[in-house]
Amino acid sequence: MRWDIFCQIVDNYGDAGVCWRLARSLSSLHGQDVRIFCDDLPTLNLLASGVDQSVKHRIDLLPWEASLNNARHPVQAPDVVIEAFACTLPDRYLAGLLIAPKKPIIINLEYLSAEPWITEFHAKASPQAHGIPKYFFFPGFQENSGGLLLDPIPEESTVLAKQVPAALEATWSKLRTNAKRISIFCYPGAPLRKWLEDLDSTGGDYDIVLTHGQTELLGINTGQQIQLPETIQLLPIPFVTQDEYDWLLSQCDFNIVRGEDSFVRAQLAGKPFLWHIYPQDDGAHQVKLAAFLDLYLESASQDLKTASIAAMTWAMPQEWLKSLDAWKLHSKAWRGHLLEKHADGGLAARLMRFVA
Ligand code: TRH
Q1: pTM above 0.85, yes or no
Q2: How many C-beta neighbours within 10 Å does residue 112 have?
Q3: Among residues 110, 115, 260, 261, which one is catalytic?
Q4: pLDDT at 70 over 70
């Protein structure tokens, strides 16, 4: 089948990251032809870099405007149209669909949420004035939701540890053998500096891998002096490919992640993590975070629940770091649980079945 995915980038990398990961799964695992129409092609290209041609050759990355030509070529009408994160289809593109001999299925791919209500709305049709119904697809953790994007499933970190990606070699050569490794990818507004200073008081050495853009959060690039104790080594890295970033997550003792895609990848890496959830004005993110923690910590001991909730709400490491070993075991078990719940192939496979 031919799939058209529409991606409007609100900010950051997540919108493109999710669309690309979905396209990649549909193409490489399910043999589908995919076009992504995106209003910020450089960002999409950045996310899609580093993947070999065998994965890429059935995916077209196109500017948003390229979809408008479709109106004049109804022959190229897609079988499935995805509006990622509720973006609206261009009128002229939609007009093309309306005159196409075979009407496609239109799907609105929603944001990921662990909230229980999504299962009641998942895969439901919403009648549209133009006559082609739109279906709502809710990614989620529950079996009766749209599921998670799994591909590529990270291997156990011990296997991967030997192969340091070229982009990370220089950083890896600086790691200290006895230091704990932490990767950071969070939003502005996090009490990052205080958090790092507090790490020192926990005793031990820490190598902190700062992903692209994170040094700005510490004020390093603006010339501000940052005085951190010697126990803390800061290691800024450039923007790496999705697969390299996955590798990084699997090699750290703790990851700070954000948004949607890195949040899922940290879970699949099977490592403890802090989810810096995307802040929403109406406070809806608090409800989303609580819903996730309910699921994530359902089988955890009371001590671990207290520790992880403290960590996820940016309590200082001193308060919860002593639970890291228990958290490690829990993270492995959670990864296993997710893979078991998604033995059906997860989001891309569920979309394929839904469309069929
Ligand atoms: O970048 P994000 O914060 O993205 C978003 C957006 O803010 C978006 O508007 C909002 O809708 C969404 O979050 C919830 O975080 P996310 O989702 O983790 O996306 C980051 C992507 O970038 C992910 O695919 C991993 C990738 N990545 C790399 O490929 N290389 C890197 O070096 C890093 C740091 C990330």
Answers
A1: yes
A2: 25
A3: 260
A4: no
Q: Is the CB of 275 under 6 A from ligand 1?
A: no
Domain ranges of the chain: 2-111+113-147, 154-341
Q: Which atom of ligand 1 is nearest to the CA of 185?
A: 34
292-301, long-range: CB within 8 Å, 24+ apart, which pairs? 292/114, 292/141, 294/114, 295/114, 295/141, 296/114, 296/334, 299/330, 299/333, 300/330, 301/326
Question: Which residue is closest in CA terms to ligand 1's atom 15?
Answer: 259
Give the model's pLDDT for residue 333.
98
Query: Hey, what CATH topology would domain 2-111+113-147 get?
Result: Rossmann fold (3.40.50)
Q: How far apart are CA 79 and CA 264, in angstroms?
A: 28
Alpha carbon of 83 to ligand 1 centroid (Å): 18
Fold of 154-341: Rossmann fold (3.40.50)
Nearest CA to ligand 1 atom 3: 259
Q: Return mean pLDDT, the chain.
A: 93
258 lines ligand 1 (CB under 6 A): yes
What's the pLDDT score for residue 228?
83
Report the separation in Å between the CA atom of 205 and the middle of ligand 1, taken as the mean of its atom positions. 28
The residue nearest atom 24 of ligand 1, judged by CA position, is 17
- Tell me the pLDDT tens digit for each residue of 203-257: 899 999 999 999 988 877 666 667 788 899 999 999 999 999 999 999 999 999 9
